[in-house]
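Support request from a user on the community tier.

User writes: "When I paste my structure tokens into the form, the page sometimes reloads and wipes my input. The last time it worked, I copied everything first. Here is what I submitted, just in case something in the input itself triggers the reload:"
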């Protein structure tokens, strides 16, 4: 592992500073180079690339999007081992992209950005990092919404004598074999962790506030013949990706315009539950009371059997209090544990990075948002010139690959940067009226979606009850909306005559 560099006392300047080296940051680096922009740096707080696929190493960690759709269009991978690939394979893919596209010289590891401030006098961003200061004409914030783990405030948590950790910061030094383990949460990570650790632990207690709809996972090993075909005839892999994309495009209408159409999918989910869980009482606790799709639909063939195992107990309530090694649920259920694992998600609608970014008016992004994120086309924010957000507000997907959305945003960002040079301006500032029109339109489309009408409370909603996370449309529609930058939506900031 690379050592932490000593802070550099000299301030260095680049045209573009990219923050983060997950899919968004690495994709930005590739697109910048392809556009002829080579004066950029990728600032990464960790010692290697990978983002969420570097940080999440919990047992069973895998993607719930088909492998051939979960990759860059410009970097197809004919060697995916399974139809749904695991964390090690996805991280290896990102390392491969880094080397193939020559991104290593641009990377600065162990370099966490502690503050980014727009300086109107020089029309540049000033960035303070743990390894020295930088200035940049533009900043691409690719920190991602699944980067900062969220551990709820639980009364008495500090009295627990055993191990406590979040699923995204898995403690591999602690052997769970023969231990009494409590897992808090039943989301996308939890349903992979439960069947992975259940056979080795002495006792597994799962705290469930809200049950999730779970569908079968059509995972299988990709055959040698398929690998050969993808290598020798790349168009076959392209066709496979196109079919996967098309199928998910067709599903979007049900999520966005006609949630009642999801009823057939809900019947399948009920059948999947009934087939796996014989105990009617347990089955009742695992049956959601909201429409499928309102919360993220989960995929697993092994989650239900693991919950039905003799050494597993499902507590249909959240963790309310810790009294030493005794865990107390909201319904009064008590259980003893040696280890406590939180699979409780991330700071998505209250991004910690927003507290570190200060715009032209001297306010942080968090202060300007006031608890409700919004951006123009999910990418730029009024008052924050030349700041580009990758996976910004209302760009997440409920049923397809986020790589599709990332690539659309990168097209938009590169178009903005290249047109700036042609216009002789130094920065673009999103107009407040354009940002408002865009977000009003997004929220109007949100009214008919399953995420609004489905009868649940999900992590898609912010503290004000507004869905600032999901894109209410197809990835192809977002691609059209971000194909080119519309200059009328921006104010141009001229190059300062006294700029250094």
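"...and here is what came back when it finally went through:"
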């Amino acid at each position: 592992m690379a050592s932490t560099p000593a802070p550099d006392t000299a301030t260095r300047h680049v045209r573009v500073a990219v923050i983060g080296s997950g899919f968004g940051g690495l994709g930005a680096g590739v697109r910048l180079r392809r556009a002829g922009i080579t004066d950029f740096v990728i600032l990464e707080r960790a010692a290697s690339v990978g983002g969420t696929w570097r940080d999440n190493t919990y047992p069973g960690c895998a993607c719930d999007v088909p492998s051939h759709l979960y990759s860059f269009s410009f970097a197809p991978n004919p060697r995916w081992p399974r139809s749904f690939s695991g964390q090690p394979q996805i991280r290896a893919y990102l390392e491969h992209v880094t080397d193939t596209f020559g991104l290593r010289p641009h990377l600065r590891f162990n370099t966490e950005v502690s503050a980014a401030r727009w300086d109107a006098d020089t029309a540049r961003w000033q960035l303070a990092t743990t390894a020295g200061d930088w200035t940049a004409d533009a900043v691409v914030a690719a920190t991602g919404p699944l980067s900062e783990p969220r551990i709820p405030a639980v009364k008495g948590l500090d009295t627990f004598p055993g191990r406590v950790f979040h699923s995204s910061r898995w403690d591999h030094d602690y052997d769970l074999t023969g231990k009494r383990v409590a897992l808090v949460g039943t989301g996308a990570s939890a349903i992979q962790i439960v069947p992975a650790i259940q056979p080795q632990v002495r006792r597994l207690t799962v705290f469930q506030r809200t049950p999730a709809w779970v569908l079968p996972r059509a995972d299988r090993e990709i055959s040698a013949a398929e690998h050969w075909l993808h290598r020798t005839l790349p168009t076959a892999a392209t066709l496979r990706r196109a079919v996967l994309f098309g199928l998910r495009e067709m599903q979007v209408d049900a999520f966005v315009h006609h949630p009642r159409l999801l009823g057939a999918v809900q019947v399948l989910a009920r059948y999947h539950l009934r087939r796996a869980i014989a105990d009617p009482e347990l089955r009742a606790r695992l049956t959601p009371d909201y429409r499928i799709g309102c919360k993220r639909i989960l995929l697993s063939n092994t989650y239900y059997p693991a919950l039905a195992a003799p050494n597993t107990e499902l507590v249909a309530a959240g963790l309310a209090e810790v009294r030493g090694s005794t865990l107390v649920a909201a319904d009064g259920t008590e259980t003893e544990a040696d280890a406590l694992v939180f699979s409780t998600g991330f700071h998505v609608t209250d991004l910690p990075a927003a507290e570190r970014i200060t715009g032209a008016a001297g306010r942080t992004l968090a202060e300007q948002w006031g608890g409700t994120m919004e951006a123009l086309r999910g990418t730029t924010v009024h008052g924050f010139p030349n700041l580009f957000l990758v996976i910004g507000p209302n760009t997440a997907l409920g049923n397809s690959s986020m790589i599709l959305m990332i690539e659309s945003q990168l097209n938009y960002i590169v178009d903005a940067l290249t047109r700036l040079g042609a216009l002789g301006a130094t920065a673009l500032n999103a107009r407040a009226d354009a940002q408002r029109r865009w977000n009003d339109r997004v929220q109007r489309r949100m009214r008919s979606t399953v995420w609004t009408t489905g009868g649940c409370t999900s992590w898609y909603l912010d503290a004000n009850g507004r869905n600032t996370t999901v894109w209410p449309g197809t990835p192809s529609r977002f691609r059209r909306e971000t194909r080119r930058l519309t200059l009328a939506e921006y104010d141009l900031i001229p190059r300062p005559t006294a700029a250094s």
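Agent notes: The reload is a front-end session timeout and is unrelated to the input. The two ends are 37 Å apart (CA to CA). Residues 234-256 form the longest helix (23 residues). Escalated to web team.
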